[in-house]
Amino acid sequence: MSSALTEPGTATETRSGDRRPPARLHHNNFYTSDLEATRHFYEDVAGLPLKVFWIEPVPKGQGTEQIGHAFFGLADGGLMAFMQYTEAAVQATQVSTQQPDSVHIALKVDDEQQKETRERVEAEGYEHFFFDHGVLRSLYVRDPNGLLVEFAVDPDGHEEMYRTEAERAHEMMRRFLAGDRTPTIPEKL
Ligand SMILES: [Fe+2]
Q1: Ligand 1 mean position to 90 CA, how many Å?
Q2: 20 to 30 Å CA-CA from 103: which of 82, 129, 142, 160?
């Protein structure tokens, strides 16, 4: 049986009410070759306290030494996690590699948090840049692992904006997949 819901490459119909979304992001996990530099960046500069530190057995085939696993907390209980393999030969295959800048993690902050983070980032010389998307105003910072971290401030009235976007999201995706490339957000993005 074929329908818009099962055909590959088509945007699905809205099914609000069918699904209960996950409560929040539980954690994102990355690799590091310098746990202390990572702790300093996330805890002291970005303001995410160290919440959990596990010393874990390595998975089969990834050496014999234990892994250090640090979790840094967001205000909603979500976590950003970083693993360090101490065994050099294994670590060499597991450390983070440079990603295109489009691959990044974005953290929601308010104006004051973004300003304070920017001051600390500038004082310590982390690679960073600021970009006003017209929708979001974002500070991007390169963490000690080469990961780009965005500190994003939503515009005034964003609750209404996201409500409106949710109502038309499936329609916009269908349009795009059908070949319509008309931008729906300000040119400067
Ligand atoms: Fe982003």
Answers
A1: 31
A2: 160
What is the whole-number distance in angstroms between the Cα of residue 170 and the centre of ligand 1?
A: 20
Query: What spacing in Å lies between the alpha carbon of 183 and ligand 1's midpoint?
Result: 17
Q: Give the tens place of pLDDT for each residue, 36-81.
A: 999 999 999 999 999 999 998 887 877 778 899 999 999 999 999 9
pTM above 0.90, yes or no: no
**Chain segment 75-104, per-residue pLDDT in tens:** 999 999 999 988 877 777 776 566 677 889
Cα dihedral 89, 94, 96, 97 sign: positive
Name the DSSP letter for residue 19: B
DSSP state of 7: S
Helices then strands, each counted (H, E), the chain: 4, 8
Q: What is the pLDDT of residue 14?
A: 55
d(CA 118, CA 181): 35
CA of 91 to the centre of ligand 1 (A): 28
